Amino acid sequence: MRKASKQTKSRNPWKIAFISLIGLLVVLVAGMFLAVSLSSSTTKLVNQKSTNQSEPISATINKAQLNQLSNYYLDKLQKGRPSQYHFEVANEGIVYGSLTLLGSNVDYSLTFDPKVMPNGNIELHANKLALGKFPVPISFVLMYVKQNYKLPKWVQLIPKDKTIKLDIIHMNGKNGINYRARTIDLKGQGKFAFEILLPTTDKED
Fold first, then answer.
1. CB 99 within 8 A of CB 105
2. Which Pfam families match (predicted)?
């Protein structure tokens, strides 16, 4: 009985680490769109738009700009925190960093390929999840998170396909700012084209 108890306790930190990685990815995606929305050029366009107009605002950035915006957002989000994570887009997306596990610093990484769905939402296909030098079964982790933890409504996990679907069109509800992806191209300098969907209000009579 004691051995079983010790094994259960020793596994918990690993489960927490796996869950944290998925959570980091979700937060990162939300932050990425927030960073795009709050970029100086886009903010000016948003301010110029009347809230009773429904025309979306187009925003296009490349890899360097996306990485710069993500780093800026993450620096502000993680200010003062001992354990920090990073995001980078190259030939694929990667979330990486280190965490304290059982008293030791352990590196982690999660790589994924983003894909634009026909309706403008995004699908992330996880390629590799590693904790330290050890690969982790992605389907198992996604299934565990799906069954045991409540994620935002706009996040859907599909363990058997190793995918995460992001309903960014309805991310912040009908009264919030939402998004529609048009292009995600990781080749060369990269191209990320989105539409910012502003909430609408009824015109006064």
1. yes
2. DUF2140 (PF09911)
Instruction: Write the pLDDT tens digit of every residue in 9-37.
Output: 444 555 666 666 666 666 667 666 666 65
3-class SS at 174? coil
Task: Check residue 161 and report its DSSP letter.
Answer: G
Cα–Cα distance between 114 and 122 in angstroms, integer?
A: 7
Extents of the domains making up the chain: 9-197
Cα–Cα distance for residue pair 24/68, rounded to 1 Å: 18
**Which three-class secondary structure state does DSSP give residue 21?**
helix
* Both structure tokens of 16: 């927490």
pTM: 0.76
Give the tokens for residue 54. 């429904």
Residue in this structure with the two tokens 């051995």, named with its chain if needed: 3
